Amino acid sequence: MAEPQIDGQEKPTLAFLGPVGTYSHQAAYDRFGSTVTYSERQTITDVFHALSPSVPLALIPQENSIHGAVIDTYDLLRSPCMGKTSFVRGDVVLSIKHSLVVRKGVRLGEIQHVLSHEQALGQCRAFLREHLPTASLVPYASTAGAARALLSPSIDGLDPLKCAAICSRVIVSILPELEILEEGIQDNNVNYTRFYLLAYSDHTAIPPPSTAPPTQRHALVRISYPPGAMAEKPRNQTRLLNALDLYVIRLDRRPSPLPIPFHDVYFVEVEEETMTDPSWTNQVMRGIQRVSKQGGEANLLGMW
Ligand SMILES: O=C(O)C(=O)C[C@]1(C(=O)O)C=C[C@@H](O)C=C1
User: Fold this and answer.
1) Measured distance between the N- and C-terminal CA atoms of the chain, rounded to whole angstroms
2) Does the keyword Amino-acid biosynthesis apply (predicted)?
3) DSSP 88-117
4) Is residue 203's pLDDT more than 60?
């Protein structure tokens, strides 16, 4: 049951990629502190599907400055519920510093397997190539989940005493049986991950973030072109993106879920440059209408 707040109102529940100690948990806590009730899930997909009237908020990683887009997240953003009952309502950026963590006593030369979220493995490629070139890389649902696995008697047949995890240094304060072998092992010291805050329905009771933007100045629009027009694909794509006619800060493309080879879905993040234009929300809506008039399908997945 959710904890009651001082004013008698229940705190909203926020789903995040657990267990405690993930970067997602840190990002959520930085943004919401003790104003929400935290509910952990095992995978990004589980976090996304937790969104419901009883779990009105969810935080999912969207992109990393070294390794790029979080593929699971973009695949989930293709879901029909996006723009209908689930919306992007904010973003959070977290500085990421990875550590190589082992069970106490394990030395670098003994490591044969490195466990972590595929994003973290991808962000530490140079370190792994130089220091653990023969180690196998074992993808895990989360960095903290990988660290926890080191404490199990066997990891899918692997000896935990020959394994390391890549995760945040906070793990060793949560799990004192583990220790840090190397710190700051990401390819670049400037390493940030951006997360999308999702909200169920047009839920407005989101606790105000500490750095609330004065107006809505970001929007995420999903665009696809008619399946029948495959022969004209390049022309259609350009036409639909031109029709939107908004200031684009990010463009992503994933295969459409339809069984049509090379049929794509575009995710266009747009921004209001001046932060002062009160008519911007209407401009976004007009851009979406223009895409529809050109025969495209455009959905507003969120504004914040
Ligand atoms: O596994 C975690 O700790 C997460 O929160 C996921 C995640 C991601 O998917 O990008 C978040 C931040 C880092 O980039 C590494 C992993």
Assistant:
1) 29
2) yes
3) EEEEEEEE---EEEEETT--GGG--EEEEE
4) no
Give the position of tokens 């008697």. Answer: 153
- Higher pLDDT: 261 or 146? It is 146
Residue among 14, 97, 143 to mutate when testing ligand 1 (max atoms within 8 A of CB): 143
pTM: 0.92
Whole-angstrom distance, CA of residue 147 vs CA of residue 140: 10
Interval between CA 136 and ligand 1 midpoint (Å): 20
Ligand 1 contact via 24 beta carbon (within 6 Å): yes
The structural domains of the chain, ordered by start, are: 13-96+191-200 (3.40.190.10), 99-183 (3.40.190.10), 218-303 (3.30.70.260)
Two tokens, residue 194: 């951006």
**pLDDT tens digit sequence for 258-270:** 888 888 999 999 9
Determine the residue of 16, 20, 24, 185 to mutate for testing ligand 1's pocket, defined as the one with the most ligand atoms within 8 A of the Cβ atom: 24
